[in-house]
Backbone:
């Protein structure tokens, strides 16, 4: 008997290991949404991190072996916002900027986003290699380089705010980032005013009026420390002065995690040189997606279950399966002062002796109950893992205050899966479940509406089984989703009544969009990929929910115009396909690469044709260099005229060397001149005729 029941006993004790660890973990009590806590001492901080990481790590390993895998959407992409002229940006004194120029393509009006190329209507600020080049771009006949800022490391993004240039970059000497603020009143001689460095990673940033909010992930352990497992406190160096955040100002949430980071928000007043850089630090997992409105920043990331709650619940249910005397002994062992190894050994012996005393029939009955309990426990953890945690922060100039947190089932694709509207927060997610009998992974898509305290008040669930969200856009009282498996369903969702979201209509077409760009309230632009049309578009999802068909091959880039004036019957009224499986564009994954102007009916995207086998070393299969093409496609676009190719501007022509053939990363306009920017070159073309007016090498 003992040999027969041993596997059941081992499985049970494996689960009890988590119970013991959770019992030994100094997990904080549950708190209300507004009650974010901080640590009273360094010892409390270090103990909390070590024990919770150990618990989460062990539970994660157990879950990977026995639980359900979590699906991740196939693309992590951006989506564009409405492009507007940046009226608040001004050039240097005594120089007049252009009256009409394009700014960075952002998600929310009034919330600027850093980019690799910025414009103030007279100058361009271009990041390339290890430098930032300031170019006088307007008027076009006077275009020239005026200065270069060399960076010890790699500049990543920048802002321009009047006469202040803010650069974010990666340090060259160690794993860290820098933030530098320059006074560029004299563009020929930028003056460094603030220099901020720290260990960690740059996540993203936003600028609201004169204030920049920089979001960083900083490690809790340091490879530079002789004791690598020693918990480090977050530190920032500002103008050679090190500022260490004390434990009392490290805020945390009551959930264990296997990959802790300090998420630090730096607040920089760009216009007041004397103002201090303030910060707010939270102990979190890795912040994955950020949404910002003029008044709030939302941090979102995958949820780690509260293992203490679920394992304690598991223990309570296990106690009900055994006689009271055995149950009391289990509780006594759990609450004893012995270490986890001793507790496990004692529980193992106790349960083994108990099972050995049972008859064969009783042992089989107990085995069935234990397996049912184990399956229930795994399913509950799976549901928790398939959730997104959202933290809401209020921002007001140099203040950042924690407001509340909430959670929704599923995972978000990117920042455009989130939106704030009339005090409510809307979010689109993809959830993952297993089919009951086949065990196949099945994805579904959902929209949730949360109130100002991040409580769910409305939901629309179960859209497009087997598919994942590839693009999302919230516009007023509607939301638009693109999902994909074989065809591109565009869903129109009614959010007029936030408590009862409803599906208004859907459109099935071949291919997919990776983001949606509003043209006006009745029209959307979709940019994505064309795929071969499947055998039938009328295939019901009921037949594909468990065994989905393979994804058809891609056949080029696609720009589509959708008419949603009748939301019950959305229509694709125009499309343009850039043929070729080798056609690519940064616009597919970076919304800032899209230039759109409704007043000009203008759409410009960088396009590249890269040889598929360029990286191969075998000469007989390597594609020749002249097969590569890099440049921009310029379109006219309107509901009346559809989508028409106005022309192409190539950057791969007359390249001095193979290494200098680089893709175009941004396009922008100043008055009637279109500027296209690659790593080495800025081309200036007449916006009406597309005739080249000027060009400028920025690497010489």
Residues:
């Amino acid at each position: 008997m003992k040999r027969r029941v041993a596997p059941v006993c081992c499985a049970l004790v494996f689960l009890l290991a988590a119970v013991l660890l959770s019992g030994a973990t100094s997990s904080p009590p549950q708190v209300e949404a507004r009650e974010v806590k901080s640590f009273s001492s360094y010892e409390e901080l270090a103990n909390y991190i070590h024990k919770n990481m150990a618990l989460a790590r062990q539970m994660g390993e157990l879950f990977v072996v026995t639980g359900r895998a979590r699906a991740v959407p196939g693309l992590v992409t951006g989506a564009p916002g409405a492009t507007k002229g940046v009226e608040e940006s001004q050039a240097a004194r005594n120089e007049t900027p252009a009256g009409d120029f394009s700014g960075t393509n952002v998600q929310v009006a009034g919330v600027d986003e850093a980019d690799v190329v910025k414009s103030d209507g007279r100058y361009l600020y271009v990041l390339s290699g290890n430098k930032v080049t300031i170019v006088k771009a307007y008027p076009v006949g006077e275009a020239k380089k005026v200065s270069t800022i060399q960076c010890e490391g790699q500049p990543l993004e920048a802002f321009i705010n009047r006469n202040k240039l803010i650069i974010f970059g990666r340090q060259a000497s160690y794993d860290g980032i820098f933030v530098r603020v320059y006074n560029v009143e004299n563009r020929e001689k930028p003056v460094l005013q603030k220099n901020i460095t720290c260990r960690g990673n740059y996540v993203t940033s936003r600028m609201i009026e004169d204030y920049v909010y920089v979001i960083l992930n900083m490690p809790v352990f340091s490879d530079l420390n002789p004791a690598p497992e020693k918990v480090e406190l977050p530190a920032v160096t500002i103008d050679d002065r090190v500022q260490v955040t004390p434990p009392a100002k490290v805020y945390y949430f009551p959930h264990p995690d296997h990959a802790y980071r300090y998420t630090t928000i730096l607040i920089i007043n760009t216009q007041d040189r004397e103002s201090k850089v303030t910060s707010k630090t939270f102990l979190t997992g890795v912040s994955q997606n950020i949404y910002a409105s003029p008044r709030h920043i939302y941090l979102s990331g995958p949820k780690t279950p509260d293992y203490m709650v679920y394992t304690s619940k598991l223990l309570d249910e296990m106690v009900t399966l055994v006689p009271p005397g055995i149950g009391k002994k289990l509780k006594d062992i759990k609450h004893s002062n012995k270490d986890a190894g001793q507790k496990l050994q004692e529980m193992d012996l106790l349960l083994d002796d108990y099972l050995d005393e049972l008859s064969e029939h009783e042992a089989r009955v107990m085995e069935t109950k234990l397996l049912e309990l184990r399956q229930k426990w795994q399913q509950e953890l799976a549901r928790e893992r398939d959730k997104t945690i959202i933290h809401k922060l209020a921002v007001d100039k140099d203040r950042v205050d924690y407001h509340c947190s909430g959670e929704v089932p599923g995972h978000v694709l990117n920042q455009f899966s989130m939106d704030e509207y009339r005090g409510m927060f809307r979010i689109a997610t993809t959830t993952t479940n297993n089919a009951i009998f086949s065990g196949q992974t099945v994805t579904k898509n959902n929209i949730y509406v949360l109130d100002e305290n991040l409580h769910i008040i409305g939901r629309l669930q179960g859209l497009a089984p087997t598919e994942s969200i590839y693009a999302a856009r919230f516009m007023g009282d509607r939301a638009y989703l693109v999902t994909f498996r074989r065809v591109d369903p565009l869903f129109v969702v009614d959010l007029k009544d936030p408590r009862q979201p409803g599906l208004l209509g859907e459109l099935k077409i071949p291919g997919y969009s990776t983001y949606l760009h509003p043209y006006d309230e009745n029209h959307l632009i979709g940019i994505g990929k064309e795929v071969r049309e499947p055998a039938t578009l009328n295939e019901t999802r009921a037949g594909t929910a468990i065994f989905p068909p393979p994804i058809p091959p891609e056949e080029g880039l696609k720009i589509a115009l959708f008419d949603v004036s009748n939301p019950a019957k959305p229509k694709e009224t125009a499309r343009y396909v850039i043929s070729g499986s080798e056609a690519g564009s940064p616009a597919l994954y970076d919304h800032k690469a899209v230039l759109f102007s409704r007043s000009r009916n203008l759409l410009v995207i960088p396009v590249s044709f890269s040889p598929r086998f360029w990286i191969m070393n075998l000469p007989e299969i390597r594609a020749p260099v002249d097969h590569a093409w890099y440049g921009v496609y310029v379109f006219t676009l309107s509901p009346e005229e559809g989508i028409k190719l106005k022309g192409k501007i190539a950057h791969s022509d007359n390249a001095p060397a193979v290494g200098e053939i680089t893709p175009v990363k941004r396009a922008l306009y100043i008055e009637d001149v279109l500027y296209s920017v690659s790593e080495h070159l800025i081309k200036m073309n007449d916006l009406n005729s597309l005739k080249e007016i000027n060009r400028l090498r920025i690497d010489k």
Notes: The longest strand covers residues 399-409. The chain has a mean pLDDT of 83. Residues 360-385 form the longest helix (26 residues).
